[in-house]
Amino acid sequence: MIQLRNISKKFANGHVALNNVSLDIENGEFVFLVGTSGAGKSTIIKLMMKELELDSGMILINDKDVTKLKRSQVPHLRRSMGVVFQDFRLLQDKTVYENVAFAMEVVEASQKEIRRQVPMILGMVGLSKKSKQYPHQLSGGEQQRVSIARAMVNGPSILVADEPTGNLDPEMSWEIMKLFNEINQRGTTILMATHDLHIVDRMKKRVVEISDGNIIRDEKRGGYFSENQNR
Amino acid sequence: MIQLRNISKKFANGHVALNNVSLDIENGEFVFLVGTSGAGKSTIIKLMMKELELDSGMILINDKDVTKLKRSQVPHLRRSMGVVFQDFRLLQDKTVYENVAFAMEVVEASQKEIRRQVPMILGMVGLSKKSKQYPHQLSGGEQQRVSIARAMVNGPSILVADEPTGNLDPEMSWEIMKLFNEINQRGTTILMATHDLHIVDRMKKRVVEISDGNIIRDEKRGGYFSENQNR
Amino acid sequence: MKIRTAKFFVKEGFGSLRKNKTMSAASISSVIAALLVIAIFFIIVMNVDYAASKLESQIEMMVYLQDNLSETIVSSMSKELETISGVKDVQFIPKAQALMDLNEKWGDNAYLLEGLEGENPLPDSFKVTLTDPSKANTVALAISSISNIERVVYGKEELEKLLQATYILRVSSLVIITILVFISVFIISNTIKLTVYARRKEISIMKYVGGTDWFVRGPFIVEGMLLGLFGSFITSLAVGIGYYYSSNLIKNQMIGLLSVTLMPFGELISSLVLLLGTVGLLIGIVGSFLSVRKFMKV
Amino acid sequence: MKIRTAKFFVKEGFGSLRKNKTMSAASISSVIAALLVIAIFFIIVMNVDYAASKLESQIEMMVYLQDNLSETIVSSMSKELETISGVKDVQFIPKAQALMDLNEKWGDNAYLLEGLEGENPLPDSFKVTLTDPSKANTVALAISSISNIERVVYGKEELEKLLQATYILRVSSLVIITILVFISVFIISNTIKLTVYARRKEISIMKYVGGTDWFVRGPFIVEGMLLGLFGSFITSLAVGIGYYYSSNLIKNQMIGLLSVTLMPFGELISSLVLLLGTVGLLIGIVGSFLSVRKFMKV
Ligand SMILES: Nc1ncnc2c1ncn2[C@@H]1O[C@H](COP(=O)(O)OP(=O)(O)OP(=O)(O)O)[C@@H](O)[C@H]1O
Ligand SMILES: Nc1ncnc2c1ncn2[C@@H]1O[C@H](COP(=O)(O)OP(=O)(O)OP(=O)(O)O)[C@@H](O)[C@H]1O
Ligand SMILES: [Mg+2]
Ligand SMILES: [Mg+2]
Questions:
Q1: Whether residue A74 is found in the same domain as residue A115
Q2: What ipTM was assigned to the predicted interfaces of this complex?
Q3: In the predicted model, what is the mean pLDDT of chain C?
């Protein structure tokens, strides 16, 4: 369960990225976060994983107050969520396999589990053949899928994906969405920031729209554009 | 004018990214390059700007054989094309303004020109307010627009854009496409690799589809998917 | 920490050295260079100390005896002298021998002694060498209290000068080596800082995917350890071999002409290896630890 | 190259030092540390040389005269001696003075001279000091050829020992300072390599947007230059001040006890600054040039 309670974030340069935002996401929900470029989507995600510090308000994840976490507890918070980063954040001196395996090493999974789990998840994102390549040897979309694989490999209870299909072709994007849908059906809460109107319109999930740091729409089974919007 | 004549590229690890590809783009054309993730789109672009070396075949840009260029002539080739990189490639220790200005410093433009041109182009991509920010202070889409601004600032005769709207919302994407259309109308040749089926379908330009290193479609006023494709 | 995590650290530490070849080469060679500075100066200091000790050990004390003592008395005096603490060696010099020595020593001016040949005015004496020249005073006092002794003579002023000179040498070389060790430590830790800096992004990524501080730090510490170990190993080897050959060379070349000898290889090498190893390993570990910390606050 | 491009290089060079604070601090302080090693050793070498020269200049030659020469002859001989090349100073010592000196010198053993007091067996003499002790032989020969001279005496063996000792000192300190300069050069260029390495991605981006090799290299070279200049300036300042005070301190403390004096500040500082400046600047520029080249082949 994710609860944002009146959160605000002003950056050091004075820019107000989030302005008193509140949002509740139940366990097992699938939520799209949409909004123009620079609206504040990534900022919400970064606040949730404590990459950024909140100015005011409260974030509860699985009923734990994120702002009150001690430094030593932050890793546990991050392990409880799988995050697909907008900028991928792959380790450049590790292969595809090692990058995904790293997320399992972090939780001190056994070698056996790693050897079983990693190839399976790489297969799911269509990268079986690329497992020995380094990130710089991959296409943009392939790198993005490594990031997706890494976020899912530990079977987190919350999956947060920031623009996970921006470098994928429509068919591959749809494959990934089917994957997300599947793990969502098995109970994973999903929050996905996206610009892909096709996907949003087709999935018919809850849509939260943010604009200039404010939530301006929250629809149960919404599309990318609000219904009363004129295009 | 861009001419690819039977070009092939096999990477050091044995992967064949391009297989005997030929493509002619006239001056002033607007061409979309589409294809699944890993098809070879970025590889074509990297070969054109000599980031990668060709295995066989020939690339002529404005009737100059790219493969025969001496090391000292490569910068001139690169200056004749503006490139929007899929991974942005912004200088992290320069501000937005400085990043765009850098492309003009490189051609030893005068301070006066730089001071006139850079703010104008930043305005065109909607980043006037961000000119003093560093890349790490920008959202994903904002970074992408800096890369677009930098590619356009010198008014190159060829604009090559690799997935330039992957991190932009549909409206912003459309703004950018209008910009591209405008400079195309003023004579700039444009080659754009993209996954955005909306844009491709709406623009009705020439579409070249590549699959597994082979050109499988080349339509004058095509859509993202070929007409005989079943979806 | 599970054993397999420790294994992971070691694997990663080695892997990172292997994968970032340019950087590893640059940093290891900087570590070697810095340790080399320590090693060179350490060798100088040890040899200065060695030479000073050798000089000091040449200090001798002349004990002049009263005239006409019987052999038994002389030999019992000799034994008595040897029991005095601080005395290393006692050698009896009969007056005839003393005159001959003087003759030889004065060389060109020896003709001054010609008139003396009939009646030797020199007394019998003991030549006493000392274990610790700085205690010459006490030893001289103790010797004076023995009966049948005319006078105890030693170059008090010269000894003091020598002791002061060796003291200054020792202190200043110690000061300089301390400074140089600090400088080297500084260079090595800066080198490590730069290699870590070049990978600050990787560190933050590891934290972002849920690595604890210790988990992220582990491989870097192993890497720092390896850097220090390799560095001190190679430096020790190079300096050891160099010293071994040059000390042999100098021993063979100079013999007879001037008594320049370097400190024996065996006496020096173990402390050198210990010094380099400790410095290398310690800074490797501590340096990595501190440098990584800076980039982990994400 | 347009002037404004040169300006751009300078602006960028400064900017990059300012923007990458962690890295600049680490690399400048490494440069300082490495230069400090050179400086310390340079000071030691200069002082060893200074002390050796001082020792050598104390070498003197005794010229013993035949008996009963008139004052005019003696003074004309003195003039003649002074014309010989290699002679620095000539001092006449009458026989009476010579005996007094001997008396004083022998100290405890002076009683041996007691019998001689009536008839002084010592000759008149000149004490000759030399400009270059290594030419003692030639000077001695030249002096011998002057009439009315009995003998020319100098500690030939001692002189040779001394010359050899100072020679060995000089050569070995030169060898060591050469090694240390190399080591420092190596450390500094490695440091620069690491800072460039940390920005290899930026370098490639500059090339990808159309920068020529020289355009990309310019700011780095300026930066390397600044690094070298800052480093050698700070090192010179620190060492200069340190040396100034410690040489004063040592001069005041030790006077009378032992003649330990450091080389005067003024004689040393200019060559030190020159050395550090050259090393710092040169490696800064060349090091940047070479390090950047590696990442420009894109
Ligand atoms: N470190 C920072 N310092 C200052 N401003 C920042 C910083 N990070 C982000 N911002 C600003 O905050 C705003 C929101 O950024 P955010 O990354 O959340 O946008 P977004 O909704 O993810 O956009 P996009 O779709 O382009 O990724 C942007 O205008 C951005 O410029
Ligand atoms: N340096 C490399 N070494 C080995 N293989 C590479 C290298 N660079 C790219 N490849 C492979 O070549 C293929 C084509 O890559 P390219 O980047 O051209 O794809 P793309 O069409 O741009 O894909 P995307 O839409 O995902 O960006 C991919 O399968 C990729 O893994
Ligand atoms: Mg974002
Ligand atoms: Mg691509």
A1: no
A2: 0.90
A3: 85
- Residues D145-168 pLDDT 10s: 888 888 888 877 777 777 887 888
- Residue B143: the pLDDT is 97
Cross-strand partners of C126:
C63, C92
Mean pLDDT of B77-91: 96
**Average pLDDT, integer, range A168-186:** 96
In this structure, are B74 and B175 located in the same domain?
Answer: yes
Same domain, A112 and A196: no
| C193–chain D Cβ distance below 8 A for any pair | yes
Over the stretch C199-208, which tens digit does the pLDDT of each residue have? 999 999 999 9
Mean pLDDT of B110-133: 96
What CATH number should be reported for the domain holding residue A162?
3.40.50.300
B74 and B164 assigned to the same domain: yes
- For ligand 4, a single-atom ion, the residues with CB < 5 A are A 139-140; B 42, 86
- Burial class (CB within 10 angstroms; exposed 0-12, middle 13-18, buried 19+) of A39: buried
Nearest to A17 by CA among C297, B130, B89: B130
Nearest CA in chain B to D207: B75
The string of pLDDT tens digits covering residues D115-124 is 555 667 778 8
Per-residue pLDDT of B142-200, as tens digits, reads 999 999 999 999 999 999 999 999 999 999 999 999 999 999 999 999 999 999 999 99
Residue C186: its chain D contacts at CB < 8 A? Answer: 29-30, 33
What token pair was written down for B120? 């104008």
- Measuring CA to CA, how many Å separate C250 from each of C254, C255, D166, D238? 6, 8, 16, 37
In D, which residues are within 8 Å of C118 by CB distance?
Answer: none
Taking contacts as CB-CB distances below 8 angstroms, the residues of chain C near A150 are 209
Chain D: residue whose CA lies nearest to C199: D198
Three-state DSSP class for B3?
Answer: strand
Domains, chain C, ranges and CATH?
3-55+161-293 (no CATH), 60-153 (3.30.70.3040)
Q: Which residues pair with B30 in a beta bridge?
A: B190
Q: For residue A85, tell me if it sits in a domain.
A: no
For residue C252, pLDDT over 70 is answered with no
Decide if B128 touches A, using CB distance below 8 A. Answer: no
Q: To probe the interface with D, which of B45, B89, B146 has the most D CB atoms within 10 Å?
A: B89
Question: Exposed, middle or buried: residue D40 (CB in 10 Å: 0-12, 13-18, 19+)?
Answer: buried
Over residues C116-167, the pLDDT tens digits come to 556 677 788 888 888 888 888 888 888 888 888 888 888 777 777 778 878 8
Q: Give yes or no for residue D257 having a pLDDT over 60.
A: no
Of all ligands present, the nearest one to the C-alpha of B144 is: 1
Q: Answer yes or no: do B26 and B72 share one domain.
A: yes
Q: How far apart are CA A104 and CA C211, in angstroms?
A: 10
A122 shares a domain with A222: no
Question: Smallest Cβ distance to C26: which of D33, D115, D193?
Answer: D193
Q: How far is C235 from chain A (nearest CA, A)?
A: 29
B37 lines ligand 2 (CB under 6 A): yes
pLDDT category, D111, cuts 50, 70, 90?
low
3-state secondary structure of B88: coil
C75 burial class (0-12, 13-18, 19+ CB within 10 angstroms)? exposed
pLDDT tens for residues C65-83?
888 888 888 888 888 888 8
**Residue C116, Cβ neighbours under 10 Å: how many?**
15
Which residue do the tokens 């570590």 mark?
Answer: C31
- Structural domain for B144, as ranges: 90-148
Mean pLDDT calculated for residue range A130-135: 97
Cβ(A132) – ligand 2 distance below 6 Å: no
Q: What amino acid occupies position A167?
A: N
Instruction: State whether C27 and D194 contact (CB < 8 Å).
Output: yes
